[in-house]
Amino acid sequence: MDRETQSEAIHEAVEAMADRLAEEKEHLTDLDSAIGDADHGANMNRGFQAALERLEETDGDPAELVKTAGVALVSEVGGAAGPLYGGSLMKASQELEDGITAETTVAFAERYLETVEERGKASVGDKTMVDAITPAVHTYKKAVEVDDHDPLEALGKAVDAAERGVAFTTPIRAKKGRASYLGWRSVGHQDPGATSTLYLLEELLAVATE
Amino acid sequence: MDRETQSEAIHEAVEAMADRLAEEKEHLTDLDSAIGDADHGANMNRGFQAALERLEETDGDPAELVKTAGVALVSEVGGAAGPLYGGSLMKASQELEDGITAETTVAFAERYLETVEERGKASVGDKTMVDAITPAVHTYKKAVEVDDHDPLEALGKAVDAAERGVAFTTPIRAKKGRASYLGWRSVGHQDPGATSTLYLLEELLAVATE
Amino acid sequence: MKKLINEPEAVVDEMLEGMVAAHPELRRLEGTEVVVRDDAPVEGKVGLVSGGGSGHEPTHAGYIGDGMLDGAAAGEVFTSPTADQLSEMIQACDGGDGVFCVVKNYEGDVMNFETAVEMAEMEADTDVEYVVVDDDVAVEDSLYTSGRRGVCGTIFVHKVAGAMAASGGDIAEIKRVAEKTNERVGTMGMALTSCVTPDKGEPTFDLGEDEIELGIGIHGEPGTERTEIMSADEITEHLTEAVLEDLDLESGSEVATIVNGMGGTPLMELYVVNRRLQELLDDRGLDTWDAWVGDYMTSLDMMGCSITVLELDDELKDLLAAPAETPGLTVTE
Amino acid sequence: MKKLINEPEAVVDEMLEGMVAAHPELRRLEGTEVVVRDDAPVEGKVGLVSGGGSGHEPTHAGYIGDGMLDGAAAGEVFTSPTADQLSEMIQACDGGDGVFCVVKNYEGDVMNFETAVEMAEMEADTDVEYVVVDDDVAVEDSLYTSGRRGVCGTIFVHKVAGAMAASGGDIAEIKRVAEKTNERVGTMGMALTSCVTPDKGEPTFDLGEDEIELGIGIHGEPGTERTEIMSADEITEHLTEAVLEDLDLESGSEVATIVNGMGGTPLMELYVVNRRLQELLDDRGLDTWDAWVGDYMTSLDMMGCSITVLELDDELKDLLAAPAETPGLTVTE
Ligand SMILES: Nc1ncnc2c1ncn2[C@@H]1O[C@H](COP(=O)(O)OP(=O)(O)O)[C@@H](O)[C@H]1O
Ligand SMILES: Nc1ncnc2c1ncn2[C@@H]1O[C@H](COP(=O)(O)OP(=O)(O)O)[C@@H](O)[C@H]1O
Ligand SMILES: [Mg+2]
Ligand SMILES: [Mg+2]
Ligand SMILES: [Mg+2]
Ligand SMILES: [Mg+2]
């Protein structure tokens, strides 16, 4: 896959993600009303529409495109999700400077997880997006580096892993984010940010599979 | 009937009126919500409870007692009904200075009607308490002065007349009071003040009949 | 309906206690629902008083202070205060130069104030005059109504009359500017939801999920027209047009405006309304000299707003700009 | 649910337009949701800024003016403003002596402000410091939460820091008094009803006809406990006790208090709450030096209130008493 094809794939992926978030806007907001402040759907939808628009005006390397998307999210999403999604994409995009390869995508994924954990001061088990990102990244890395699977297959496994991460957020008590204010009452509700993370990964897989 | 018996009768009447208004409080408020501001029941109930309390501490002539009740209403009812009910009782009480006779009660009734019309700048047909008072007073006067009926019988006819006055308020458009702001939309609703007037007359009749 | 109250019967009394506890410059006349300046009667100026039913907070007692009212009487919720208390208030605010009353045009208010003025004149020989404010353009002033209602324009009358009294104007001067203000001001309101009185505990009127009431009064009295819900811009256009039609201003006139919240509407939405109001005035060549946005004359927890426009001249501008310091309105030099 | 709005997406933009139309002393930074003093940057003083999600009006831009804020950034409803706009605001309010930010303790606000501070330092070499306000005693500050939330006590921090900035204090001085205020203030809130965001158009949470939520946040985040409806006195006792337990004041201490409305509760009811609050403080030998009652930090149209208590010393009294002139709060000398 040459750089141009890679860049096109990124355009397509962001478009698919934006469409998916538009569809899931209400569902995400409903999840956020139960344990947060009922805006996660609107935030993510607004952010990815903006990212899509900016990418339509942008040509360039994969790294530049991902960074542009990240900047768009930082300036449009706001709330907790803005700096977490946007800032992490911005940082992690540096790992794609040599293009998209099995190696660089693993580095990208690790850097993304690291940045979210740092900015959010969150660890796995806090009932946040980290719970979806962690199993996805770990599974991806293991599949590529240890099992020598090709990236597409590895991504498929990562999506399954993220799904289990999302399911895992439901029965646990929140330690970070607005849901933490609820104390024990947060148990039994699925985390919105973990859920939107899963949607993005699903769309990434769908576009990569084409 | 000596003065003392008359005074006792007034005590009893006010007590019966207060009880009746307590019972009808919600109904009067409902009527007032439809075309006014939903307080006529509370206003009248508060006023007659106060009148009752003051009368329990007061001995005296019929004229004094009625005046005391009027003063209590002026200071407790507020709104439009306060000066209309209370002020008119205060003024009309002067006609009872020679005790309660067929003659003085007619003068009392006429003076009461006059005072309400004056203070309220209202005439019959404006959809107010005047529509209940006018037929009652006219019928009472005719029954006593022209037909020579005894006051009790005359009062019975007056109550029937008031009832027709109340019914008459429903199909007409309000010209006075808050209901007038509704314009044609006031048609079809019964006037609260006319209704409370009828209740008071009914209780007066019941006590007089005993 | 849930409310932050104890017994409904106690709500006015307890509100007034909470109010004087928050504002030590206010004092309650013992045994009454009358609140006055702590230093009343103020000598060397005409006393300015107002009053009416409760449920319109910060109206009325919230406008007591330097440059505005000396006293305010609180009736039961939506019920005029009684004449005896009004008379006590008038006498308590007479520093020797007489008292001027701002009365809103409701029969209950007018009849009780009339009785009170007679009582104060008789009992204490107090010099008393009053103005009856009737700024509500929703009501036709005709043989068929009790006349236009007094609504949010009353706050401008308080401010103007208060500034005149503070500057040493006599009763006649105060009356002149109060009447001038009343003649030049118009208001029109609307409701998205009904208010709920503590006593009844349920909506005073029923509005459908998609209905609004135009020309609403401030007591939950039904308005003049019920329509489908519209956008904030359309509602603003409707209200503004009604007011401007009534005032009939020449292009180039200077105005002061109020976007007033009815109590349950968030400030955010009032600013959205103000945005369109100022555009509309601008379109007609009217020049907004001052724009107020907030809860000035409420109707308990009703959602909705009213729009008030006052045509200015130099005298009214000076009086509006004069300093005032009250719980509900502060104007600094 | 009916609202006085046009398109939900436009509500923040249109509110800000309506706001600067009402208050000519405010100016919007072009292409942003940032509002600053018209004369910003003010030279010779540290710039004081704040910001956060919209829906809390008059917070945040309503506290811009002499003696308080120089700028405020408005995010979407209940969503932190973005870092790029915060950075623009910081740079626009730097008159050469640096900028101090008042941040409420929400992860979104904190992370965006942190990013913005880095950006402003990098892009314009601006000297920036900030305080993170966390006055909400409803939230346990433990390993298991994101820490206490910033709620109505933030208004006291704005006032104190604003007075210190106006009197020429440097960034370190401002930070010291802001942190001191934050350490000595506690707030607890409750809701009778949920707020309704323009975007969702329906209650954020469901409360039964006879239920209330204690420890509610200002974003319609569910509170810490759901109970049966109680009387205003009982609710006041509950909130006050929670705050006082947290502050642990000695008898004889002087305090300032806020009874803050959540947006949909009539002022009448807030005064009823203030009455009981002052009785309770009095019972414990606490001396109320100043009591505020009104809508300071709202949650759209939510019905409910919060109680804030601040322990004073001479310095804080001087700073609270210093003059301020803003749309949402005026203090005169
Ligand atoms: N400190 C944190 N670390 C990691 N993720 C977080 C943190 N705080 C919140 N989140 C994630 O952000 C999501 C909420 O995003 P959003 O609703 O857009 O922001 P806000 O909470 O500011 O309204 C949560 O569901 C959670 O997954
Ligand atoms: N101008 C008037 N003349 C005669 N009766 C009036 C007048 N205005 C009101 N009323 C009577 O008073 C009643 C309303 O009383 P109430 O609800 O207690 O006072 P308010 O209208 O001030 O709330 C009306 O139903 C009507 O009968
Ligand atoms: Mg959220
Ligand atoms: Mg009534
Ligand atoms: Mg009434
Ligand atoms: Mg949010």
UniProtKB/TrEMBL annotation, chains C, D:
Instruction: Tell me which Pfam families the record gives.
Output: Dak1
Per the database record, which ranges form the DhaK domain?
Answer: 7-329
- Could you tell me which SUPFAM superfamilies the record lists for this protein? DAK1/DegV-like (SSF82549)
Originating species = Natronococcus pandeyae
PANTHER family from the UniProt entry: TRIOKINASE/FMN CYCLASE, TRIOKINASE_FMN CYCLASE
NCBIfam families in the cross-refs: dhaK1
> Could you tell me which InterPro entries the record lists for this protein?
DhaK_1, DhaK_dom, Dihydroxyacetone_Kinase
Entry keywords, A to Z: ATP-binding, Kinase, Nucleotide-binding, Transferase
Presence of keyword Transferase:
yes
One GO biological process term: glycerol catabolic process
PROSITE patterns named in the record = DHAK
**Single GO MF descriptor:** ATP binding
Annotated protein name in UniProt: Dihydroxyacetone kinase subunit DhaK
Q: Name one GO cellular component term.
A: cytosol
